[in-house]
Structure to design on (887 residues):
């Protein structure tokens, strides 16, 4: 049975490594600041007891004040999983660092979030629209589109 | 004196006889060898995620049918599992067994299409494809008995299944289970040692273990690369922990291994269906849920092992009758991340075969 | 020569006087009409056999609406194709585009000028004493037509398909010709008529390896499965005839089947004994044997997947060519050592040699090798 790692414990562990980067944590997930996302992700992937090498999916949700980007990570060897969240504020040009250099599976998913929600990913090699055509105005999955 | 050559770009698709839907690949060729490949899709984007925010939780189920239209029972199952996880609804025993039987039958049907289309692209001019469709017709007849539909079933509901099976279903299923192993053996025998198939598929499009895990690949493609990861065993959903079955894996990760993994998994699915048929109890097939479900505020992610890979639904609810956000983790889209690495350095004919062995459905890629 | 041609078979089945209808021009006119009419009819029959046969092997019915058993289906196809609009790409080279189907189709018809289908002088249009050489030479001309089609279409896919085609045809000519030379050695003459008359025992028994080589090389020459990557539907749409429609496409389609008919006819003449056989009229035997050979071709098409271009070339150069040379060597030794010996000795010896060679060679050569850069 896959073990869902407790957000609180992992958050406590990470707080020692990267102080000040955890905003909130709960039983199921924990929330980090978007600036320290890349460091934390790298630590999660390379640390031997966590070893979260498989990225299940990346999603973005539009809560009118902010966008929340959700990462679901799994470790194939240890068979445990973790949910990581980050937020970005502002609707004009939200920016989040990209994790493509760590998990290549994020490639198409970040392009999809850029295409449909409008969140830009810093460091993505090929940030183009993926489903809609070039020159499409607007970001359809946002709550204020239509 | 060296001849001056320059690479040129050709378009494979979007309207291409190699089935699988509207999908375009822009390949840069140097002679016959591919140096770069860029997949372009979005021709079938219907905005299912946005549409789901305006329908009730039960009204989204027909939308999920149309995602991977070859295996629509699995799509339904993943979605209702997510809603049940969100709302904390329990499912009666008989419904669980029915779900497992339908999901495994659907897996066999989808693998038959996958293998048939793969061999069609190898050039065996429709013969294995039509043989496999002959078996698929029997499965579709079973599904028509249950839900009245041949392709898009809309059978699962939140809290169970929509209706009970008719009386002639279980005897017909027993008939099918008696005949099917012989057919799988026949296809295996005809194709396993075929010299031309071995030449076209062995050693082509190798995906290493580390690359497969890094690219978030799942399903038969991941297992063919040697990673023993099957969600039915790693994170059992429904009642899969009561059945005994094995997970076949490949060694090298080439196209031939993916084909072998699919054939072996069909045999394991038959085993599961046999066990489920013996153990199925009687009782209700749907628990009492209100007509308009209002789950409490929260979020849930449920994933299943669909025929294409790991199909997951991420649902966010704000206590209204429609989901606030419904995100679909589509296995075909993730499996495509690895396409570029697998194809570079091979010829065009190999690229078509590699693409066929990943087995995508564009309805799922584009949603 | 092993068998003597003086058995006076010319008078065996005598329905017409030996120099009917008399006169050079009458002979040419009547036989040309007969040959063209029967070739076109047989091609239609071939299309029917292929579609019905392939369908039955794939667990489905095949065309069965148009006429009894769907026999008029090819006629319906021909009418459909004739009334379609003829589309020429804008930037295509007009003359080359227009000439290509003609140059691809004409040689297939010209081969039938020398093939004997009846005993006596009325059985063939001309008895060239270099018969088989003429056949090989004319058969290569249709490749020029294919290449013109690929170039004149102004389309990358067509050009790729045409180049592959030229490479494959050139490679497979050599085993083809070497297999023919084995037959010529035994019969002692290049003339097709003499070869048929020399077959008291069909040469398929005396030259089993040669038959196999000729069949494989012949299938490759005419782009039939498993070597049909020139027009592979699932890869390059339709290869060199992507941009053709209407009657020009019909000519390419007919040319493909006419060439299949020609190869079947040549196999029948060289290896199966042509029109020889008891009881039935010779031309009926000829047609029956041709249909049998073609059915085997349909069978291989339905069963086998397609090979890749470099595997195709490797098969020609590394597998067929050495076998063809060895076959030639052994045949020459046998003709030298036992000039009028019993062919019954040769049969088991040759069959044994073929089995041993094929098994041995396929152990050394696996289709997955061979990275010939095209």
């Amino acid at each position: 049975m896959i073990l869902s790692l407790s957000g609180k414990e992992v958050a406590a562990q990470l707080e020692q490594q990267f102080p000040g980067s955890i905003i909130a944590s709960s039983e199921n997930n924990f929330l980090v600041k978007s600036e320290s996302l890349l460091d934390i992700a790298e630590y999660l992937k390379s640390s031997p007891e966590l070893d979260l090498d498989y990225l299940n999916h990346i999603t973005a949700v539009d809560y009118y004040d902010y966008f929340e980007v959700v990462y679901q990570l799994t470790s194939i060897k240890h068979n445990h999983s973790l949910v990581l969240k980050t937020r970005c504020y502002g609707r004009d040009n939200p920016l989040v660092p990209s994790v493509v250099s760590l998990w290549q599976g994020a490639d198409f998913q970040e392009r999809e979030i850029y295409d449909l929600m409008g969140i830009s990913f810093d460091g993505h090699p090929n940030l183009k629209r993926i489903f809609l055509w070039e020159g499409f105005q607007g970001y359809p999955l946002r709550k204020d589109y239509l | 004196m060296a001849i001056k050559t320059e690479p040129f770009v050709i378009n494979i698709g979007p309207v291409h006889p190699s089935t699988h839907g509207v999908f375009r690949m822009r390949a840069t060729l140097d002679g016959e060898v591919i140096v770069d490949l860029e997949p372009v899709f979005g021709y079938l984007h219907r905005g299912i995620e946005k549409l789901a925010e305006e329908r009730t939780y039960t009204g989204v189920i027909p939308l999920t049918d149309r995602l991977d239209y070859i295996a629509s029972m699995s799509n339904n199952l993943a979605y209702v599992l997510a809603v049940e996880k969100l709302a904390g609804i329990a499912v009666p025993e008989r419904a669980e067994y029915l779900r497992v039987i339908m999901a495994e039958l659907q897996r066999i049907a989808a693998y038959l299409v996958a293998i048939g289309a793969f061999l069609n692209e190898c050039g065996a001019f429709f013969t294995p494809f039509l043989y496999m469709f002959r078996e698929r017709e029997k499965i579709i007849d079973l599904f028509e008995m249950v839900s009245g539909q041949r392709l898009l079933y809309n059978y699962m509901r939140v809290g169970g299944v929509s209706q009970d099976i008719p009386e002639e279903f279980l005897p017909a299923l027993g008939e099918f289970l008696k005949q099917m192993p012989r057919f799988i053996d026949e296809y295996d025998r005809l194709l396993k040692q075929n010299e031309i198939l071995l030449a076209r598929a062995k050693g082509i499009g190798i995906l290493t273990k580390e690359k497969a895990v890094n690219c978030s690949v799942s399903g038969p493609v991941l297992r063919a690369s040697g990673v023993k990861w099957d969600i039915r065993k790693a994170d059992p959903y429904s009642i899969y922990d009561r059945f005994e079955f094995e997970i076949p894996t490949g060694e090298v990760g080439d196209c031939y291994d993916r084909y072998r993994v699919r054939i072996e998994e069909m045999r394991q699915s038959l085993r599961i269906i046999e066990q489920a048929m013996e153990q199925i109890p009687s009782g209700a097939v749907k628990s009492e849920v209100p007509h308009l479900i209002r789950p409490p505020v929260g979020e849930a992610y449920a994933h299943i092992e669909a025929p294409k890979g790991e199909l997951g639904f991420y649902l966010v609810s704000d206590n209204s009758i429609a989901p606030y956000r419904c995100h679909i983790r589509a296995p075909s889209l993730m499996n495509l991340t690895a396409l570029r690495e697998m194809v570079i350095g091979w010829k065009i004919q190999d690229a078509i075969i590699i693409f066929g062995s990943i087995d995508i459905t564009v309805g799922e890629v584009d949603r | 020569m092993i068998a003597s041609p003086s058995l006076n078979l010319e008078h065996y089945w005598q329905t017409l006087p030996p120099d009917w209808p008399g006169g050079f021009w009458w002979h040419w006119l009547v036989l040309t009409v007969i040959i063209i009419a029967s070739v076109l009819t047989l091609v239609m029959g071939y299309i029917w056999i292929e579609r019905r046969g392939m369908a039955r092997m794939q667990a489905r019915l095949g065309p069965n609406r148009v006429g009894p058993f769907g026999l008029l289906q090819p006629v319906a196809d021909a009418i459909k194709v004739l009334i379609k609009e003829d589309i020429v790409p804008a930037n295509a080279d007009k003359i080359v585009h227009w000439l290509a189907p003609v140059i691809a189709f004409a040689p297939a018809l010209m081969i039938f000028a020398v093939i004997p289908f009846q005993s006596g002088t009325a059985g063939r249009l001309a008895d060239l004493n270099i018969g088989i050489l003429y056949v090989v030479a004319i058969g290569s001309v249709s490749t020029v037509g294919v290449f013109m089609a690929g170039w004149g279409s102004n389309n990358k896919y067509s050009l790729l398909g045409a180049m592959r085609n030229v490479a494959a045809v050139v490679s497979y000519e050599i085993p083809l010709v070497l297999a023919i030379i084995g037959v010529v050695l035994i019969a002692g003459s290049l003339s097709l008529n003499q070869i048929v008359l020399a077959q008291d025992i069909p040469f398929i028994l005396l030259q089993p390896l040669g038959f196999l080589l000729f069949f494989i090389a012949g299938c490759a020459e005419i782009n039939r499965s498993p070597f049909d990557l020139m027009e592979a539907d699932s890869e390059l749409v339709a290869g060199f005839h992507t941009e053709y429609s209407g009657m020009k496409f019909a000519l390419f389609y007919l040319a493909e089947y006419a060439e299949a008919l020609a190869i079947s006819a040549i196999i029948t003449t060289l290896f199966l004994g042509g029109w020889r056989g008891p009881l039935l009229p010779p031309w009926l035997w000829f047609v029956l044997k041709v249909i049998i050979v073609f059915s085997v071709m349909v069978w291989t098409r339905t069963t086998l997947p397609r090979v890749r271009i470099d595997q195709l070339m490797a098969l020609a150069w590394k597998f067929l060519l050495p076998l063809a040379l060895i076959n030639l060597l052994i045949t020459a030794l046998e003709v030298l050592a036992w000039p009028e010996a019993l062919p019954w000795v040769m049969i088991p010896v040759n069959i044994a040699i073929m089995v041993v060679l094929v098994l041995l060679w396929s152990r050394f050569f696996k289709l997955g090798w061979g990275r010939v850069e095209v």
